[in-house]
Amino acid sequence: MSWINNEYKNSIRKYDKKDGLKAIIIYCLIMGSTFFQGWLYTTNTSVLLLNASHIWIPLILVLLFLCFLYYNKEQISSVGINAANIRNSMILGIAGGFLLLAIQTALFMAQGKTVSFNSPLLMNWIIFLFAALEEEILFRGYIQTRLSGLINRQLVVGIINSVLFVFIHYPVRWVVSGSVSFNVLPAIYVISLLALHFFCDAVYKRTNCLWGSVLLHLIYNAVGAMIVI
């Protein structure tokens, strides 16, 4: 039995090269927003406003994207925002989120590190929610499905999207550090991002419903922030 939901398979068959190019444009806009966010950290902006930027920037991106969908006469359900299979999606999201955290915690402990837990601030929970919503809608819901119009093999599309997903986490640190180097992100963090991508990808493809991926992403970010090593 194929893991990929039949509705998901049918939906990606309708996309063509034009849709793939649109996905690339959307990605470039996301990258631009991350460079802008990095620039904010080099200004005299207050800590409160810098923290708030992790909310209003994703919110603006999502709102602009929804306008983009409307302009192109595409249904919001085409990016997985629907109620179909929502129960299974949420169950898989919860299970996947805690499984991923368990693996990460076990790896820390295997390295001899002491692991404890701390509760994040309310502001952090809000930031994590908006980050999860934005990244899942844009990367899993839109970019990955539309790239299928350029590349016919889903495994290749998934790998390419995983690289694109990891890359958006670099610009802020590049701008702040003043140098372009892949060493600005620890290897364990990059590996965690790749694992997060493929877990979220699996949930979405299985159910054709994005809510489970959003929940998985939120659990990973929020509970992961509680881990102190």
Features:
229 residues; mainly alpha; two-stranded antiparallel ribbon; 9 helices; 2% strand
Integer-rounded radius of gyration: 18 Å
Number of strands: 2
Which sequence of strands runs across the widest sheet? 1-2
Number of DSSP helical runs: 9
Poorly predicted runs are none
Global geometry: globular
Strand content: under 5%
Structural class, judged by helices and strands?
mainly alpha
Major sheet summary line: 2 strands, antiparallel
* N- to C-terminal distance: 41 Å
Report the helical percentage: over 70%
Average predicted confidence as pLDDT: 90
Order of helices and strands: HHHHEHHHHHE
How would you describe this protein?
With 229 residues, the protein is mostly helical. The protein is built from 9 helices and 2 strands. It has helices spanning 6-12, 17-40, 47-71, 86-110, 122-147, 154-167, 171-177, 187-207, 211-226, and strands spanning 116-117, 227-228. It has a two-stranded antiparallel ribbon. The mean pLDDT is 90.
Brief rundown of the structure:
It contains 9 helices and 2 strands. With 229 residues, the protein is mostly helical.
Strand and helix layout:
Elements: H1 6-12, H2 17-40, H3 47-71, H4 86-110, E1 116-117, H5 122-147, H6 154-167, H7 171-177, H8 187-207, H9 211-226, E2 227-228
Helix pairs in contact: 2-3, 2-5, 2-7, 3-5, 4-8, 4-9, 5-6, 5-9, 6-8, 8-9
